[in-house]
Structure formats: C-alpha cells, structure tokens
Structure to design on (351 residues):
C-alpha cells in the first residue's frame, strides 16, 4: 500500500517517492491497454441512463460517450436525472425498469442504495452497468460491472502533487461530498497523504454535497478566509465542481489575496482545463476519461447482452498540469486519451 510505504519514509524519501508517482501519472496516455477482443456489437438496444446529476460535468460527459458509442448500432438512450438526490432512498432502478429497457446505466448513483431495484433487474435479466456506482471496480453490488478509476489512487496523486508544488508547506482545505462512498474514499486518501507530509497542515475538511455546493460555497469560502487568512494556500477537492463555483465573482473576490492553489482528484471539467491553461486558481486535476468510459459502458453492456463476462478493464490515473495539458485531449479542454480507443472497440465490434 502506498500509504504504508510513505508512513515509513523520512521527509527526503517521501518527497522523492511523491515526485516519482506524480511523474508517472502525468505521462502521456497514448498506448491502448484495454480489451482487444469481444463480441460483435448488437443492434437497436434501449438503454436507460440514470444520472446522479446531469449538471455535473463528469456525468454529462459519460452520457455523451455512451450516446456516441451506441449511435452506430442504433442504440436508444433515455435518461433519468436525479438532480443530486438519487442516493436518498428513491427506487430509481425500479423506475427505470418500468421503461422496459434492454440495459441500465447507473452513473454516480450508489448501488448500495438501490439493492431492491438491482435485484429486480437481475430477475428481469436486465443488465446494469455502473459508473462510480461503487468504490470497487468490476462485478460488485449487484452490477454486471462497475467502471471507475481507483478513487484512492486518484486522490493520492492529487494530494502528492499538492505536496510537491507546495514544497511540503501546504496549508490545505479538503472539499468532499460524504453523501457517496466514492467521494468518501477519495477524501480519506487525500487526508492520509497530507498527514504523512511533515511540513503540511490540514486546516479543514469541508463536507459539501454536490447538490448543495452552488448555494453553500460562498458562505464556506468566506468563513475559511476569515479563519485562516494567508495560512490557507491549497485546496484539494474530490472533483472540479467546487473550483468551478469559485470562479463566481463574489467567491473569486474573497480569494484574490490568498493565492490559493487548487487541485482536483476527479472529473476534469472544461473549466478546470481552462483554469490550468491560464494559471488561474487551479494547478492540476486528475480527470476521468469520460468519453472513453462511455465507450467502455457500451462495450460492457454488449458483453452482457451477448452472454459474456465483463472485460475487467480499469483505466490508470492521469494527472493534468500546465506541463502536459497540450496532449490527450487538452486542446479541446477534456481528457480524451490519444490511445485510439474508438478504433480499438470498433475493430472487434464490427467482426
């Protein structure tokens, strides 16, 4: 485990290991390491895409990837948008089943809150593929498979980059969303790294559910600047949403004199890319390959429709900074790996 290794190191070893991990994560993603074989793509399937919140850049990116990948086969994608409230006990999978789908996508919704619906889907032989529906990847929690970058790996890279950029002198606030297990795993890993950095100081952990962030961020940032002043020089979020909101004039004015460096352990919104390019507020993000994950979702559903097994593919973490933002989709303000994944999937789908 990375955490155990870092805990046994002196400050020099810690920084050396941090630099090495950051360098590997920032390397170009131009080599295909995914599946090389699978069933032919079946035609004309109806998919219900259950979104935790379509206003979230990550969720909308996944949706667009699924639609793009399924177009050639005439897949019909319907949506249910929970507006950030899916994890509050609503029987959302059961609602999707009422729409008579061939398959269901559970995007950003905690599968553990949908146990009854998932059991009904299994009985109806309707496969459900998750995206960030569980902390674990693969077949888990009643899902045919769950697609997700390892949350601990993503969070540790973001935190380690913060350590490197602050020269182990960060005064750090962590922004998280404890309403879902995936974000909880990220914030726990961020905190673990910060505590292992001898010169860093964890100032505060702010639990702000994504659905509430637009209305709460101004008051939270105002309180942080009053409490910590210049001692607050870094912010690490479980996703980019918090920093998207910090661009609002009232919040930006509060941070004008603080020179806070922001880092995200997830998503990779277009606004995050623009901030990194312009050296405005944000210095790094650990984005999801959203379109590529959308194509993988179609591939996994197709494997289920064809009576096969999940591919088992898990993408490796990638760190975007000003140094590598010109590659892997950066010019379009999105993480879209230059590994030719579309052609790789289409090659065996068309056999």
């Amino acid at each position: 485990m990375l955490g155990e290794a870092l805990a046994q190191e002196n400050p020099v070893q810690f920084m050396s290991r941090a630099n090495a991990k950051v360098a590997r994560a920032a390397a170009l993603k131009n080599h295909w390491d995914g599946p090389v074989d699978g069933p032919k793509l079946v035609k004309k399937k109806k998919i219900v895409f259950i979104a935790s919140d379509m206003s979230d850049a990550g969720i909308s990116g996944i949706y667009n990837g699924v639609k793009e990948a399924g177009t050639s086969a005439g897949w019909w994608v319907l949506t249910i948008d929970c507006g950030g409230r899916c994890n509050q006990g609503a029987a959302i999978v059961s609602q999707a089943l009422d729409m008579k789908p061939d398959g269901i996508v559970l995007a950003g919704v905690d599968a553990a809150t949908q146990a009854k619906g998932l059991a009904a889907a299994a009985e109806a032989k309707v496969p459900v593929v998750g995206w960030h529906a569980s902390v674990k990847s693969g077949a888990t929690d009643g899902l045919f498979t769950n697609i997700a970058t390892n949350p601990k790996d993503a969070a540790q890279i973001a935190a380690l980059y913060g350590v490197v950029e602050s020269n182990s002198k960060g005064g750090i606030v962590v922004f998280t969303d404890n309403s879902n297990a995936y974000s909880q795993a990220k914030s726990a890993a961020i905190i673990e790294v910060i505590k292992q950095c001898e010169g860093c100081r964890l100032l505060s952990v702010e639990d702000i559910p994504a659905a509430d962030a637009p209305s709460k961020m101004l008051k939270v940032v105002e309180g942080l600047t009053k409490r910590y002043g210049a001692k607050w020089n870094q912010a690490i979020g479980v996703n980019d949403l918090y920093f998207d909101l910090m661009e609002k004039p009232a919040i930006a004015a509060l941070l004008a004199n603080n020179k806070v460096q922001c880092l995200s352990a997830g998503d990779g919104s277009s606004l995050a890319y623009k901030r990194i390019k312009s050296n405005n507020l944000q210095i790094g993000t650990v984005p999801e390959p959203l379109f590529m994950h959308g194509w993988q979702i179609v591939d996994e559903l197709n494997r289920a429709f064809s009576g096969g097994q999940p591919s088992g593919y898990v993408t490796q973490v990638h760190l975007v900074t000003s140094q590598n933002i010109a590659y892997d989709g950066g010019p379009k303000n999105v993480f879209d790996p230059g590994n030719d994944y579309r052609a790789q999937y289409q090659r065996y789908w068309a056999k």
User: Anything to note?
Assistant: The chain has two domains: 2-28+151-285, 46-148+291-314.
